């Protein structure tokens, strides 16, 4: 899995950092510590997450429970 970008810090009370790979894998680090990978996330979902006023609310509405995921840390 090759990430096109490094982890980017986020201004969010829920999410600490994000990375998105060329194979449509979204990696999210939560403020509470866990890191999850979400698979087959379209680029538009990632772009909208990055521009959302509330990244936590966007995550809860559009990513959580919508994509297959794996806890990695």
Mean pLDDT: 93
Cα(first) to Cα(last) distance is 16 Å
Rg of Cα set:
11 Å
Q: Report the portion of residues in β strands.
A: 25-35%
Count of structural domains:
1
Question: Order of strands across the biggest sheet?
Answer: 1-2-3-4-5
User: What is the tally of beta strands?
Assistant: 5
* Total of helices: 2
How much helical structure, as a percent, in the residues? 10-25%
- Helix/strand order, N-terminal first: EEEEHHE
Structural class of the helix and strand makeup? alpha+beta
Task: List segments where confidence is low: pLDDT < 50 over at least 5 consecutive residues.
Answer: none
Globally, the shape reads globular
Question: Sheet bearing the most strands, described?
Answer: 5 strands, antiparallel
Description:
The protein is an alpha+beta fold and 73 residues long. The protein has one domain. The chain has two helices and five strands, in the order E-E-E-E-H-H-E. A five-stranded antiparallel beta sheet has the order 1-2-3-4-5, with no helix packed on it. The chain is globular and about 25 Å long. The model has no long low-confidence stretch (mean pLDDT 93).
Helices, strands, pairings?
Elements: E1 8-9, E2 15-20, E3 26-30, E4 35-38, H1 43-51, H2 55-62, E5 69-71
Antiparallel strand pairs: 1-2, 2-3, 3-4, 4-5
List keywords for this structure.
globular; 73 residues; five-stranded antiparallel β-sheet; alpha+beta
In short:
The chain has 73 residues and is α+β, with helices and mostly antiparallel strands. Helices cover 23% and strands 27% of the residues.
